[in-house]
Specification:
Elements: H1 22-27, H2 29-43, H3 53-72, H4 75-78, H5 82-109, H6 111-116, H7 123-149, H8 156-186, H9 189-204, H10 211-215, H11 220-228, H12 230-243, H13 257-282, H14 286-289
Length: about 290
């Protein structure tokens, strides 16, 4: 009588390379923290100024735009506390630009690790976003400190708006990083395209100018599209939290700002879902194309 071999018990095992996307990133928070810590530590290793470079770029950027627009074009006279208005918008765009740009290149930059072992590949764009957030927080502290010297007294609603704006940026940047990062593995033109988007983003949202200037030119339906742009909503929410309380209400905020902020968050979440979808579709070719 022959004895048939029993099939092995595979309960509890997961097929290699099969994961749950961003859920796996959450489940492997320790790996994520290691990646973020590594990126933060090596960024300025061997640099004489070290962490001060995190301030050199935004300060230089601020001075260039303030002299060109605030002084030469005299926006400093037409927009109250224009330096605060300008800097609160620039920190938003810098967070988005750094997270989006570095997240797009994160898979290619970590090619040796991806080709050797399996781990949730979403870890890399997510960690790039978190590193950008780490660099963003000191700039916000500097901004808040300056605002205190000019009579900053924000309400709880305004502070909640600041948090909403940051969440919009983080979600949007993560979704776009996964989308363009996965495409960039096979087509390196993606990172060049991202550089163009980042360049346009500074001017496509009210960082350097007031929303009223746009409203005077655009028709109503196009103005609505402009306001639901997640970057526009995030910039205006930070303006409402930092700049507006220093103006004594002398400058109007965009109407229905909170509503547009919620819509922008929904759009950002949709972009995150779409980015995750494309990422999962292209993920099987990462090791081969890298």
């Amino acid at each position: 009588m022959t004895q048939t071999a029993s099939s092995p018990d595979l309960e509890g095992f997961v097929r290699p390379g099969k994961g749950a996307g961003l859920v796996d990133v959450f489940n492997r928070r320790y790996l994520l923290s290691l990646l973020v810590r590594k990126e933060v530590q090596v960024r300025y290793r061997g640099s004489a100024l070290g962490w001060l470079w995190s301030y050199v770029k935004p300060v230089t950027q601020f001075l260039v735009f303030f002299i060109a627009l605030g002084v030469f074009l005299q926006l400093n006279n037409s927009i109250p506390n224009y330096p605060i208005y300008l800097f609160s918008g620039l920190v938003v765009i810098n967070l988005f630009s750094e997270a989006f740009s570095n997240g797009t290149k994160s898979l290619v930059d970590n090619a040796p690790l991806i080709k050797k072992i399996y781990l949730p590949r979403e870890l890399f764009p997510v960690s790039s976003t978190l590193v950008a957030l780490v660099n963003f927080l000191p700039q916000v502290i500097v901004l808040g400190t300056v605002c205190l010297f000019v009579g900053w007294t924000p309400s709880l609603v305004q502070l909640a708006g600041v948090l909403l704006g940051i969440v919009i940026l983080v979600v949007l940047a993560t979704g776009l990083s996964m989308l363009f990062g996965s495409i960039n593995v096979s087509f390196r033109d993606a990172q060049n395209f991202v550089e163009l988007i980042v360049l346009v983003a500074t001017w496509a949202s009210p960082v350097l100018y007031r929303w009223t200037m746009v409203a005077e030119i655009l028709p109503d339906w196009l103005m609505v599209l402009y306001q639901v742009n997640p970057l526009t909503a995030a910039v205006e929410l930070l303006h409402a939290g930092f700049w507006y309380p220093t103006t004594d209400g002398s400058a109007p905020l965009p109407p229905n700002l909170l509503t547009f902020g919620v819509i922008a968050l929904v759009i950002s979440l949709a972009m995150l879902a779409f980015g995750q979808f494309v990422f999962r579709k292209l993920e099987r070719r990462f090791a081969q194309d890298l």
